[in-house]
């Protein structure tokens, strides 16, 4: 389980770790990130916390979510399209 700073809000910490993994290529463009329940287990947080982190990543154009399918890492081109 990943240790988080429990004195600060957890969802931004989870989002930052996932974003870092994307930047390092651990989660490649087009690849599905682990499901919510797997992230809950990995981080030792609630589903609400993971869902907030995923929403933040989606709002910042790091991932896209397909209902019933999961969340996928956006390509650099897809991210750039949002910044134009």
TrEMBL record:
Q: Which UniProt keywords apply?
A: DNA-binding, Transcription, Transcription regulation
HTH gntR-type domain ranges (all copies)? 8-76
According to the UniProt entry, the coiled-coil residues are: none
Q: Which Pfam families match?
A: GntR
Protein name as it appears in the record: GntR family transcriptional regulator
Provide the species name.
Answer: Nonomuraea bangladeshensis
